[in-house]
């Protein structure tokens, strides 16, 4: 059991040794289906040879924007030194749909999830099924994205140690058959701590461990004053954000709770790595220049890329090449 501020947090991360249970999904009905259509990816068990396409996937990186995840795929192509066969290029595997984008670079899958938990939930359902149908094992998930910080310099990377909802509860509530069902939102703390070691002495940004608040809304749910509606004062807003900071919450975003709960249910190691675009204690709107934002958005990608390089045993090789060693 893991504890988060007095809550007992049951975890399934140790129940399935290989990250994806290839014998059977947590849903027993899938085994009885003649065909499984992964509608929002434009894939299916009869129309595509999923094991041939995806069996070697070991790392799944998800983020909100299709464009950002395409750029991340190209970035990983360089970071892994992966060479595509002659005449081939990176393509959006889910191009037949307009819901999500998916790119594959060797053992790395880069997928967009849209904005907010409903969109991320749909994608994660089909992604977890996809990896199971493909026979993947020992898979690690990462959410890489942007967020609002609390008491941090803009551009700081936050690795989430835990995540709570807008009521500060570490559970994902879902309405199922007319009843509320709560699932513990548990992240892998050991994975989070490993990511903290993926700093480079030349980095000009900080990477910190902190709690994350995940909300259903970008405006009122995050105590902003600049939405179409607002029924609280500036003083009330600031007091709420200061209270969050006092409780160890260092950033606010909109997908981590769903991500943590679904990874936990599936027994998958997962981490959330986001860069802060502003300090919410100082304001509500993002004023940084577009070029600066693009540089900041690369920071979580660099941290996760270094972790993947380490696990594949290639980071040290690349550093030796840079230092002129064989």
Report on the structure:
The chain is of the alpha/beta class and 326 residues long. Helices cover 31% and strands 24% of the residues. The protein is built from 8 helices and 14 strands. It has a 5-stranded mixed barrel with strand order 8-13-12-9-14, surrounded by 4 helices. It has a two-stranded antiparallel ribbon with strand order 1-2. The chain has a two-stranded antiparallel ribbon with strand order 3-4. α2 crosses α7 and α3 packs parallel to α6. It is globular. The model is unreliable at 320-326 (pLDDT under 50).
The main β sheet shows up as:
5 strands, mixed, barrel
Which shape, going by the Cα principal axes?
A: globular
Category by helix and strand content: alpha/beta
Share of helix, binned: 25-40%
Q: In whole angstroms, how far apart are the ends?
A: 46 Å
Low-confidence stretches: 320-326
Quaternary structure of the protein: single chain
**N-to-C series of helices and strands:** EEEEHEHEEHEEEEHEHEHEHH
Strand line-up of the largest beta sheet = 8-13-12-9-14
Strand content: 15-25%
Number of strands: 14
- Report Rg: 20 Å
Task: Tell me the layout of helices and strands.
Blueprint: E1 2-4, E2 7-9, E3 37-38, E4 43-44, H1 50-54, E5 59-63, H2 66-79, E6 102-105, E7 108-112, H3 117-134, E8 140-149, E9 157-164, E10 171-176, E11 179-184, H4 189-196, E12 207-214, H5 234-246, E13 249-253, H6 256-266, E14 269-279, H7 290-312, H8 315-322
Helix pairs in contact: 2-7, 3-6
What are the key terms here?
globular, alpha/beta, 5-stranded mixed barrel, disordered C terminus, 326 residues, two-stranded antiparallel sheet, single chain, 14 strands
């Amino acid at each position: 059991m893991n504890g988060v501020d007095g809550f007992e947090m049951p975890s399934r991360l140790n129940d399935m040794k290989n990250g994806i249970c290839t014998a059977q999904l947590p849903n027993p009905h899938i085994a009885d289906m003649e065909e499984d259509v992964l509608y929002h990816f434009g894939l299916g068990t009869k129309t595509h040879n999923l094991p041939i396409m995806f069996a070697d996937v070991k790392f799944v990186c998800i983020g909100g924007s299709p464009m950002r995840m395409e750029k991340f795929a190209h970035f990983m192509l360089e970071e892994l030194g992966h060479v595509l066969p002659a005449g081939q290029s990176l393509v959006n595997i889910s191009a037949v749909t307009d819901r999500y984008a998916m790119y594959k670079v060797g053992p790395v899958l880069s997928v967009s999830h849209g904005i907010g938990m409903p969109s991320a939930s749909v994608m994660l359902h089909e992604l977890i099924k996809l990896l199971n149908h493909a026979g993947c094992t020992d898979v690690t998930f990462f959410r890489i994205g942007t967020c609002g910080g609390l008491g941090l310099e803009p551009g700081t990377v936050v690795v989430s140690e835990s995540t709570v909802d807008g009521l500060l509860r570490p559970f994902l509530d879902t309405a199922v058959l007319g009843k509320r069902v709560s699932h513990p939102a548990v992240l892998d703390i050991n994975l989070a701590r490993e990511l903290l070691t993926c700093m480079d002495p030349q980095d000009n940004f900080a990477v910190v461990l902190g709690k994350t608040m995940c909300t259903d809304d970008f405006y009122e749910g995050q105590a902003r004053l600049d939405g179409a509606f607002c029924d609280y004062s500036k003083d009330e807003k600031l007091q709420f954000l200061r209270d969050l900071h006092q409780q160890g919450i260092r950033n606010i975003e909109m997908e981590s709770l769903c991500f943590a709960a679904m990874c936990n249910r599936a027994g998958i190691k997962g981490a959330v790595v986001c860069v802060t675009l502003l300090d919410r204690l100082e304001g509500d709107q993002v004023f940084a220049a577009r070029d600066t934002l693009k540089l900041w958005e690369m920071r979580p990608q660099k941290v996760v890329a270094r972790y993947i390089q380490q696990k594949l045993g290639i980071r040290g090789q690349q550093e030796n090449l840079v230092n002129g060693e064989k």
